[in-house]
Structures are given as structure tokens and as C-alpha cells.
Amino acid sequence: MVIYNTLTKKKEEFQPINPPNVTMYSCGPTVYDYFHIGNARTFIMSDIIRRYLEYKGYKVTYVQNLTDIDDKIIKKSIEEKISTEQVAEKYIKAFFEDIKKMNVKVATKYPKATEHIQEMIEIIKKLEAKGVAYNKDGNVFYDVSKFPEYGKLSGKVIDELESGARVEVNDEKNNPLDFSLWKKAKEGEPSWDSPWGKGRPGWHIECSAMNLKHLGVTTDIHAGGNDLIFPHHENEIAQSEMANEKTFVNYWIHFGFLNIRKEKMSKSLGNFFTAREVFSKYPFGVIRLFFSQSHYRGPLDYDDELLSAAGKGLEKINNLVYELKKQIEKSDDNCYSPNINIDDYKKTFENAMDDDFNTPQAVATIFDFVRDINKELSSNNKISKTFVGDSINFLKNTAQHVLGIIDLEKEDKSEDIELVEDLINILTSIRKKAKAEKLYAFADDIRDRLNEIGVILQDGKNGTEFKIKRKS
Fold first, then answer.
1. What pTM was estimated for this model as a whole?
2. Which residues on adjacent β-strands are paired with residue 274?
3. Is 161 in the same domain as 269?
4. Residue 339's domain is classified under what CATH number?
């Protein structure tokens, strides 16, 4: 398996520190608002990568932080006239509600920044002792000129960098590029005791401390959006590697922007939809399939037409699952066994995912499988029970366990397939009788009402057949 490493700008063979164990850290939300669908892309694609590593047999310790103290949280608390703790609690609850709807697996640990203040202080003390951090009246800064490799992740050169929108401007700094490790307390803001007086941590030190505490000095994989490469991840590397004198992360994975009308979707630009708005319109499987049909590193345009197309694609997968479940109830191993090697599809799927998590190719393999199995089902009334079971397992292992776009267990619990079929057959027989008695409007009404709930009637020479549009 190879992974594109942002640090080296090339694909590298994945070699975890302590196989079969893998440590993975993914930057989580700053909990001051509902996260937008662009953030959802990062959360879902991180989830798919974690799922595939587990599919390959790795034991993944997956950590996703919750930034519960930040300038934006303080601003929100003032606006809503509630404490920062209440703001964080409100949006942490919303975060968990939304990722559950997205079918994102629960992380091994969700550390909160406010629970790791002492760990942050210890790192800052180390940096100060090494002459890399300096204190200006209770504000502690990291001197980027003291870290020779600063810029190695983003490819930026210190001499060419200028103070800009993403670099905090502060006259107390020795250099405009130096970043905050500890911020002096301001009246009315949350603060903690420290060797430099009351204050609170800077954003970058939070992730370093939580990563170190829960995954160790060196982490196998660190993931996040492209917008975090600089300065956030660059600064994480600088402070962590200077403090611990070891490589901070071996593989850096970054996700492309989700755009709207070719422009990056972001709260600052006001051109965004919250994840909960989108998930009220589209089921989780549609969103996850939409994201999976583009490579995680590239940009992606939010597009309702593409989402609708993803919905139709998902319908094909779910329809096949439904037909296979019908087959397994009536077939046995004396039935016809198609000349299809399911292992070939499995290998193609794995080859795609092994190549830097190429989900578009993996999805294409699943659709090839769906097409080929449908051909066999349309030509044969009964197919070998073993073959049907193997087909279901292929979809379960790929579309469900890795991509997370379907849920076979949920389907089993929520529907009694035989009862549904019996009820539809009763209605089609009533419709047939109505047509024989020339009650065409009544017959059409039955057809249209069934169509509204996802049951498609197809009249043919051999009578009326039906198919059900499966929901994700």
C-alpha cells in the first residue's frame, strides 16, 4: 500500500511504526458552530481511510481532537451570552449527532483541548528551556527562525513569507511569523495558571499536546484539510520536533477543498451549507458515495446534479442487495453458478485502495460488479446459494465496511422482504382486475401511488413485474 505524503510530495510505501498497530490523528472541529459540508468531506474521507486500514488487518488507534477553547468560541459566547463551556458543550453534542448521521465510526478517543492544559504547559517549558520560545509580558511565542526545517511541510521559505491573513500580526513578536504558544489572559476570558501568568494556549500547541498524550512522540498518520497545511500543521511539526527531537508524523494526509461555484466553501466567505442542512436532503450513503467518486486530494465541486447521480448509483447497489437477499431465500447449491470470479473484483478493489486510497476506481469496481451480477440475475431464475452469499459478502466488505455507503444489517432489521412482496403482489393483482374491468383511472392511481413510495411497476408480455428503489 502506498500513501501520498504531503511532507515528501510523493507516494511512499506505508510502513507503520509498530505493525499491525497504526496510530492516526485527524484534526477535529473547533466547536463554536455547526460544521459545514466541506468539513464533512474531511471527516468522511478520514473515516474511509481508517476503515480501509482496518479492512487490511491493521489495529487502528484513531484520535480526533475537539478544540473547545479558541477565539471563535469566546466570540460566540459573547454573542449568545453564555459561557465558553456552554458553547463548546452545545456544539460538541451537535458534532456527535451529525457524524452519526454521516455513518462515521466512533474514534478511539476524542480529547478536548481544555483537558490537556498541563501537557501544553510542559511542552512550552521544554521549548523555552531550549531557547526556542520567548516570553513577552505573559505572551509566549515560538521563534520560527530557530527551527531550520520550518516550511518543510508547506514548501514555504521563511525569507519569502510575509505576514498575511493566516498569520497573526502582533507587535510583541520578534518576527511576524512567530506564533503564539501561550496567550496572556484578557478580562472576561477563560484562563489557566501557568509559569508565565494566567492565560490560555495557542491553537497549534493544543494538537501537539493531545497527539503526544494519546499516540506517542511519533504518529503514523496525521490527516486534515488542505487549509491546515500552513500554518497549523507546519507549526505542529516545528514545536513537536523541537521539543521531542524526534519525527512528529511519518505520513501527512491532506484533503482537497470542497468548492461551491469553483470557490472554496468556507464560513468566512459565507458560501457554505451546514452538514445537517445537506443531510436533511440526502441520505448518508449518497453523500459518502458523492465524496468517494472523487480522489480525496483533489478539489470537488458541491453540485446537486452530481449528488442526484450518486443517489441513482446508490439505488443500483441497494437494488442488487435486495435481489440477492431474495435469491438466497429460494436457492441452494444445486442451482446455476455463474462463471464469475468474485475474487477478481476484490483484488481490483484492493489494488485501487492500495494506490493512495483511490476511491473513484474502487467505486467503479463496485459498479462493474453490480452490472455483471445483474446480468446473471436477469438471465437465471435461481443462482447457487454459495455464489449469492459470496456476492453479498463482497458488497458488505467493500461498500459497507470500507466506503460506508450501505448498511446491510439495518436493512435486515427494518424490513420483512417477503411481507413487502406479498403486499405489492396483492396491489398488482387488484390493478390487473381493474384494467380488465376498464377502470383505467383506478389502475393508474395504484401504479402512481406505488411509484411515489419507490415501487416501480413494469408491464410486459409475461404480466406485471416490480422493482423497489432501495433507500440508503
1. 0.86
2. 36
3. yes
4. 1.20.120.640
